[in-house]
Write a structure and sequence with these properties.
- The chain has 8 helices and 11 strands.
- By secondary structure, it is α/β, with parallel strands linked by helices.
- The strands form 3 sheets. The protein has a 5-stranded parallel sheet, with helices on both faces.
Length: 234
């Protein structure tokens, strides 16, 4: 039974969501602002639903402080049309976003996809405990699936779980065009919707954390209308 922390100052919505999630067998804790949410955070929390517009401490600042200590998955709840909040949230390490108003069905689908991905990462880490030195290497990138660690030029990369999953996917398919639809399904666990920029932002964040190649060209290339590829050695 997953434990969800819902941080939102809309008490009517919070009460409704708590009832819905409880009926789906989730344990739900609530907080009315960012400060209360940070104070309520502990190791029992499996997922955070985080509203952007809140008093005292807004969702963006809350996420920023949260990421200083915790790697718990975060689903941002944003106002319809507030794209800048979604972009900033993804840049700070949010796993996904959901614009308000949203349906209960869509919310539950996003929650289950994120929790499934987090559980798969945990299971893979546990199952690979006896293979912690096994790695995938390409160019000067080395990725250890068992340790959930990646290095470039022997320097540890500070990646979120989503960025790690993306890099893992690219390393398994070097030089191959990977569509956004495929990445959304395989990495985020959801179908790509119109105007959904989550994959674009996660790839952009990963690209920024990977040092450029010797020829000063990016390692991950964008092919407009087709997808992305991990550039092969020249």
């Amino acid at each position: 039974m997953a434990h969800i922390l819902l941080i939102d100052d809309d008490t009517e919505l919070t009460d409704l969501l708590k009832e819905v999630l409880t009926l789906e067998n989730f344990t739900v804790s609530t907080a009315q602002d960012g400060e209360a949410g940070l104070n309520a955070m502990d190791s029992s929390i499996d997922l955070i639903l985080l509203d952007v517009m809140m008093p005292k401490l807004n969702g963006i600042e809350t996420l920023k402080r949260l990421r200083e200590t915790w790697e718990v998955p975060v689903l941002m709840l944003t106002a319809k049309g507030e794209e800048i909040d979604r972009v900033i949230g993804l840049e700070l390490g949010a796993d996904d976003y959901l614009p308000k108003p949203f349906s209960e069905r869509e919310l539950l689908a996003r929650i289950r996809a994120i929790l499934r991905r987090a559980q798969n990462t945990k299971d893979n880490k546990e199952s690979n405990n006896n293979k912690r030195n096994d790695y995938i290497t390409y160019q000067n990138i080395k990725l250890y699936p068992g340790k959930i660690e990646a290095y470039c030029n022997d320097q540890l990369l500070d990646l979120t779980s989503t960025e790690f999953a993306l890099l893992h996917h690219f390393l398994l398919h070097p030089g191959q065009v990977i569509t956004k639809d495929t990445l959304s399904l395989d990495v985020l666990g959801k179908r790509l919707a119109a105007f959904d920029r989550a994959i674009d932002m996660h790839v952009s964040n990963l690209r920024k954390k990977l040092p450029e190649r010797v020829n000063n060209k990016p390692r991950i290339k964008t092919l407009r209308g087709r997808g992305y590829l991990l550039v092969e050695e020249e």
